[in-house]
Amino acid sequence: MYKILSPTINDMHIPFVDLKAQYQSIQHDIDAAIASVISETAFIGGKYVQQFEAAFAALHGVTHCISCANGTDALYIIMKMLGIGNGDEVITASNSWISSSETISQTGATPVFIDCDADYYAIDETLIEAKITTKTKAILPVHLHGQMCNMLAIKNLATKHHLFIIEDCAQAHLSAFNGQLAGTFGHAAAFSFYPGKNLGAYGDAGCILTNDAVLAEKCRMYARHGALVKHNHQMEGINSRMDGLQAAILLAKLPYLHLWTEQRIAHATYYTKVLTGIKQIILPAIREFTKHTFHLYVIRCEQRDALVNYLKENGIATAIHYPTPLPLLPAYDYLKYQEEEIPICSAFQHQILSLPIYPELTTEQIDYIANTIKAFYQV
Ligand SMILES: *Cc1c(COP(=O)(O)O)cnc(C)c1O
Questions:
Q1: pLDDT of residue 12
Q2: For position 10, what pLDDT does the model report?
Q3: pLDDT < 50: residue spans in the chain
Q4: Which domains does the chain have, with CATH numbers?
Q5: Which tens digits make up the pLDDT trace of 113-161?
Q6: Is 21 helix (H, G, I), strand (E, B) or coil?
Q7: Residue 295 DSSP code
Q8: 74 CA: nearest ligand 1 atom
Q9: Most Cβ neighbours (<10 Å): which of 2, 61, 295, 357?
């Protein structure tokens, strides 16, 4: 099984993401953007932040973009300003990064976890209605891996039960459902620009999108110490701002987002082509009528941990998103979820594996990864 590959190709080192390669590809733009911020001392607020907000809102055809410090804050600020709090429940995915549930708790509300579906790893929309109670205030779908949730079903449920929808778009820049962009379905959406995200800053950054002018103003106020005008605090808030450097970097990167997204999709398509037919692995399925932007390329595989080691020995970095379903983490012991309540997610935690994917990945690298996987399974 542990066949040694040819020595030349064995020198390959494929990181999980390659942020340096991306920087080098647009170094001039980035360096110029950073230099401008410094020479103009536009560190907090200022024109780059305003320009980025306007550009990101326009890209989505949405009226308001409120920049903030990170994607986690974006989720928290939205829920807090929608009035979600003590005694309320918010329905969300079991398979996600902890931001999508810890922000529910931060407001004082309780996260209600739903299993993922067997094909797309997203919240299983067919299980939501049974979990709606008189306390339910919102549904928080997470477009995990860059794959859209079933927003038609979720919108119908939200309308029927008078619930808010808060989209977690941290992994779904430019993903679309029926041609409509992620972040335009709910009452508000949260985006993250963490460096490794499909649109990444050089530090933490995030934003909120909404068409609701009242909510937008509240969110902006809350994120800026409760004051839209300095010293005029209408309420107590928090300090959650995107700094000027991050805004200028994001502005410089934004024109490339479409290209990078197409490159990710092309790499995913190629992965699927060269990995098809290996019976020990299950490849990602794409939901009908959606654009999957492949923030992550996640397979399910036999002997996952041995495969991880074998790939590592051969210079290939991988990751697991996520090793433990949220409700089974120690942080949620108090909610007393059992594996049987989320059977799909629980089974998948031992099988899922994220392969390297980023725009700068090459066909040669994907071939090498695929050949290494085939060598492991001796196929
Ligand atoms: C990255 C991420 C977040 C949080 O974003 P930060 O900017 O790191 O706070 C929220 N939800 C999901 C699904 C994420 O992947």
A1: 85
A2: 54
A3: 1-4, 6-7
A4: 27-254 (3.40.640.10), 256-377 (3.90.1150.10)
A5: 999 999 999 999 999 999 999 999 999 999 999 999 999 999 999 999 9
A6: helix
A7: S
A8: 9
A9: 295
Give 75 Cα–ligand 1 centroid separation in angstroms: 9
C-beta of 167 in contact with ligand 1 (< 6 A):
no
* Helices 244-253 & 27-40 angle (0-180, nearest 10): 150
- 76 Cβ below 6 A of ligand 1: no
Phi, psi of 57 (to 5 degrees): -65, -45
Ligand 1 contacts CB of residue 168 (under 6 A): yes
